[in-house]
Amino acid sequence: MSNNDQSLAQAMKEESEEKTKDAAEETKVEEGLKKKEDTDPETGTEGGDGGGGDDGSVSGFLMSKKEEKWCRALLGVRISAFVLCLISFTVMAADKVEGVVIESMDLFGNFFSTEEPYSFRWYDYKEFKYSLAVNVIGFVYSGLQICDLVKYLITKKHTLNLRIRGYFSVTMDQGFAYLLMSASSSAASTIHISRSYWVGEGVHKFTDMASASIALSFLAFLAFASASIVSGLMLRFN
Asked: How does it assemble (predicted)?
């Protein structure tokens, strides 16, 4: 083999070694860039099943504990609304009094008073029937909400999607708060008129029982308003 052939073979061998070396360096650089992309820039740990998974577990645990705390607070408000509605419509349903009504008449300039037996019954007044109906429905609704919350606290599983349930609860709570305020206001006006118009034995007992029922209905309104606020906060946090 001539000197020219040997020089050419040596040059080709050196060129091949340089290409192999460049390819190895490029591969090394690509592996380094890939590793850098997989690394968490804040913690310096690699992604995947490393630190990110632990952070997700901790975050989920804290969120679960926070949700459980708010659910316990909401459960207390629900129980208050349940009890208040129950007592309110029970008192109203028992408001039946047998009494005597004193009626005055003016006959040719002479005044006469007569006493007539009269039965005071809550179902004779549409405002009282409205108030009782709203409290009964609020009682049933609160009972169902209590069962759902107790189920969640025991099983840690929601019956409905959390967001759908949140919107439903906020809407229903605000609706019942409005209905209770409306019913209580109309019944309170009827009590005031009855006290001004009726005179006789048993009138005050009848209106006093109705007043007690309306007062509890107002408190139930506050409970539903509070439940609406708590449900809204839970919806916002989640």
From this structure: Homodimer and heterodimers.
